[in-house]
What we know:
The chain is α/β, with parallel strands linked by helices. It has 2 domains: 13-326, ABC transporter transmembrane region fold; 343-584, 3-Layer(aba) Sandwich (Rossmann fold). The protein has helices at residues 13-23, 27-45, 47-61, 64-112, 116-121, 124-166, 168-171, 173-215, 217-222, 226-279, 284-326, 383-390, 413-419, 434-438, 447-456, 460-464, 483-497, 513-529, 565-571, 574-584, and strands at 343-350, 360-367, 372-377, 398-403, 406-407, 420-423, 432-433, 473-474, 501-505, 534-538, 550-555, 558-563. The chain has a 6-stranded mixed sheet with strand order 6-9-10-3-11-12, sandwiched between helices. Helix 18 (513-529) links the parallel strand 9 and strand 10 (534-538). Helix 3 (47-61) runs antiparallel to helix 4, helix 3 packs antiparallel against helix 11 and helix 8 (173-215) packs antiparallel against helix 10. It binds adenosine-5'-triphosphate. It holds the Pfam family ABC_membrane. This is ABC transporter ATP-binding protein. GO terms for molecular function: ATP binding.
Amino acid sequence: MSALSSETPVAGAAPLSRLWGMLRPYRWRIVGLSALISATAALSAASPQFVRIALDVVIPSGEVRTFALFGAVFAAFYIVQVVLQYAGMYLSFAFTQSVVSDIRMQAWSRLLRLPVAHFAEERSGSLTSRVVNDVNALEGMIQAGATRLAGQLFSILVVSVILASMNWRLALVNLVVMPLVAGVTRYYQGPLRRSAREIRKRVGEMNAVSTEAIGNIQVVKSFVAEISEEERFARENTAYVDQNLDRRKDVGAMEGLVTLLANWGIGAILLLGGWMVVQGTLTVGELTAFVLYQRQLQRPVISVMFFNNQLQAGMAALDRVSELLDAAPEEQGDLTEVPRGDLVFDHVTFRYPGAEIPALDGLDLRLHDGRTAALVGSSGSGKTTVTRLMTRFHDPERGRVTLGGVDLRELELRALRRVIAVVPQEPALFSGSVAENIGYADPSAARGRIEEAARLANAEEFIHSLPQGYDTPLGERGVKLSGGQKQRIAIARAILKDARILVLDEATSALDSESEAIIQDALGGLFARTSGLTSLVIAHRLSTIEAADVIHVLERGRRVESGTHAELLALGGRYATLHELQRSADPEPGMGLTAAR
Length: 597
Ligand SMILES: Nc1ncnc2c1ncn2[C@@H]1O[C@H](COP(=O)(O)OP(=O)(O)OP(=O)(O)O)[C@@H](O)[C@H]1O
């Protein structure tokens, strides 16, 4: 089940008020458009009069002049009508696009600000489907609802008045037909909304399944899993088709019943009106005009009723978009000045959502301001989790994390994350050039600073060997880099950020010993050059963290030892064992041992 889904009542008032909230900024544009569209509708209300005048006045007159005048007025009238129709159509389309584009931007910026935990609960394909597919599905409703609806209601009003004034007895037929039409529409409202919602969910699921497979295409291929991926997608595809067919049955039945009732209305008017012609109380021209008007009444009435279909589909999409817009963004404090001082984990317990065992279990840890600390511990001991709490991707369940004595939750997130640069275990590259990828840390950085960061990260040489150097495109459609090259780009990016706290989470694990040594040297230089740089290093090879000011050893989310390399060896505890294990193994890392400096 999706993290954002909720039991949304069918056709509740809340989505309507949400829709109104979205349209409110455009109210004057809606008024203007409605006036334009109503004027066009009013013009078409006049067209049956042409038929009446032609039948009852022009033809009986037998005069060429009357024929010519009638022809000229007729031609001019439809030119005006077409121009107004074009303007109304284009402007209402432009209006819909502005509203939808605003909603899309609101949804996207809310998605970016959701807490990290949300992204673990709802698959990314389904989340992007809310922003793209569901928002697109609002188009039909807004286009029809906010623009054409006004014109149609206006037409219904005008034509009803004309019908009543032409022959009120015949017009009474509508008092029977229209409530029946409204009853049918109301009956189908609930089922249509529910099936539309199910369809939107299916689109999200198809998106999720396909994005996941594409994102992991090499795994899919190497495990020859094309067929099982096909089957996974086929299940969603079939569910989507079935749901659509079910919905079509309801839409077809509703539209059929409405059309049937409308045609029966015409039949009743023909019979009653025909009888009046026989009695001599109505001319054939009047009856013809009345029937044409009746058709003109039915068209907007049927459109309004069919709009119910679009409305329910739009509302179902709006429910999904609203769940995203209403989801609480990351919580943050309002302190914009990040104090200097030690970063302290004070009795921190943290459990990932749904996990039984805590990843951090009463952890006490102090990273001294301006010093280099290392984290060591076996796989799963909680090292990466420490870095995630430092950047507030997650918050402690108990205890607190403070910087310079201030709880991280009191700080503005932007301010906090600006002072911390993290090089993660698996660096991510974006579509864009090498320079843009390094410059991601600071898009305003001049080329000189980007090149300097690349030099410090020992990336310069391989960048120069790329076809277009710093301008070589990377990412999905660009050049693919090796794991070690990616790490060097990520290190350059972190260096460019010029942060006060640098976190290297196994940042050199994909490098060979020689490259690692060069980067270690560069980082050593960086630490020396940047006064007061606090760093936390999680490294694969214990040899790379020996020089750290302090080494902390984690086990099962707790700190079990702390000290310098020499002190910990002398202690003869967990660190000494890990060190011995690694020393006796290959000089390259192994045995599932993970360390930090
Ligand atoms: N997103 C997550 N959701 C649920 N549990 C998680 C998540 N990330 C990590 N864990 C669990 O939390 C515990 C600590 O994981 P963490 O990644 O911090 O360990 P680590 O010491 O960095 O390990 P490694 O050296 O293998 O990277 C592990 O038991 C892990 O399974």
